[in-house]
Description:
Largest interface: A-B, 95 and 90 residues
Number of helices of chain A: 16
Number of strands of chain B: 0
Distance between the termini of chain A: 30 Å
Oligomer: heterodimer
Distance between the termini of chain B: 31 Å
Shape of chain A: globular
Strand order of the largest sheet of chain A: 2-1-3-4
Amino acid sequence: MAHRASWQEYQKDIAPDKYYYARSCIRQNFFPGSEWAFLDILSNKLGKDIYDDPLHTSCTGIGYHSDVVPLETIMTVVARQFALMAEAGYENFVSSCITSFGIYNEVLATWEEFPETEERTRRYLKEATGRDLVKPRSIAHTSDIIFYQREAIARKAKHRLINRHTGEPLKVVEHIGCHYAKIFPKSGIGGSEFPYVLAGMIEAWGGDVVDYPERRHCCGFGFRNYLVQANRGSSIANSHKKLESMAPYRPDFIVANCPGCAMFLDKWQYTIAEMDGVAYGADGKGIPVLTYEEMAGLVLGYDPWQLGMQFHQVDVEPLLDKLGVEYDPGAKYLGAGGKYIGKPADAAINCPSQRPIYERRK
Amino acid sequence: MGKYYDMLAEDIRLEEGLKACMNCGVCTAVCPAAEFYNYDPRQIVVIVQTRDDEEIERLLKSDTIWYCGECMSCRPRCPRGNTPGYVIQALRTLSQRLGFFTESEKGRQQLALKRLIGDNILATGYCLTPRNILPELHPEQGPVWEWIHSNDNDIYGRFSDCYRTEGSGALRMIDKESMEELHRIFEVSGGKAFYDTIEAHSERKAREMGYNGATHEYMMDTYTLNSENHY
Lengths: 362, 231
């Protein structure tokens, strides 16, 4: 990516401080440590003002893209989030979710292009909640903020994305998530063609970005194509296509922008290993899939279990060993207060007997 | 001629998503759903563009409009600035308003989505919560999720001081006043009425199909059954 300048055509203004934080349904379910880490990095490592509001709800985006929540309804829910932001004294809205980020941009663009929809939303909001809509000065995805702070994070780095055994940069597949920039290319760093938001972090922290044929392909979520059990063949088929495409490049890990994508690329590797006995990592196991908060957290020296990496189905320990991250194996599956609560059953994807895909092809 | 098109045109997503399609097929070439299903977004846009009532009604009652995953990969690719994904959203909304969604296997799944996602929004303020991701319905989530699901208080308690209680943090319980505001938003903006429409048409169709109404059994059948006639 370093030699491509196209991403620079798509720049966006990112506020330097004073953020209103909107949580994500998927991220807090599957990566609660990532949300914690984002807030901790911003507040305690970088000294920024970020407000975690207890009053906001889901944006209802998964319901909207499952076509059960109408456009008028989601617009009003979004208007309430913006009203809460203004009431709390903030004007820079930061979303922890790619689906939500797409929704916020879509709603603002719709209000701009169809002003009557904004007027209707203001009426609905007032009638339903008594609140007044105040539009944000800026909208950012949480990864935009980490991208913006990537050099500051690099200066505080405890680990770089370097294989400590070989001294070589780690090979990293980045997955952006369709709704980050495919809906509104100008809203994402690098646009939809050469998104640079994750690549910029990887390069700043010493890794190499893997360019592979299906780099821009959807992870396969497809809302109803995963949420309804009968449709999941579509979801896994798309993840399968990406994994087949990236495997020959022998990535050390995948980092995803969207919490849903991170979860699917992790869980579908488990499923494919169970179904077909195939693993895509060079070591015969799965390829670890990280959120960018986890990647930033490891670079900054956070404990992997504090980052919530025990939530992954593909074990992350091989990657931690390459990075030289110290960890306590016995602490991985402890509950709050260090309580022992048992541990998950073993899974084929974490067993080294799996045959890597490129060896199978030989 | 044009009755259904006029109804679709009331949805701003049609105005935004369909200017004039030249039938080049780039949308189909990049579409993840088109690789998996017998699905061609180009053809859908062309049909809508004809404004032919008979053809559009067939679409509204078909499985075809339910294959799209709304990834919007089509949007930045169209050389004419169309968004087939937006056209799909308008078609799906109209199909549900008219009750036509119950005429197809994939369309009938809207009841499951309404109950599993839609109702959860009004019950918790979130689209999903750990306790509604049941391992028996999600075998692909694997043993780690089973462990999390079985020990949720202990596990989420490691990351949040307010798991399922009020406060700031991951998976906090949303306060009563905010939930009341959310419910009023759904009532005022038509969200609640739309839910009721999905239920009412599903009830009618379920009885027509020999079920005792839109029962849990009917909903689970829409959620799990796959005729394999989609590829």
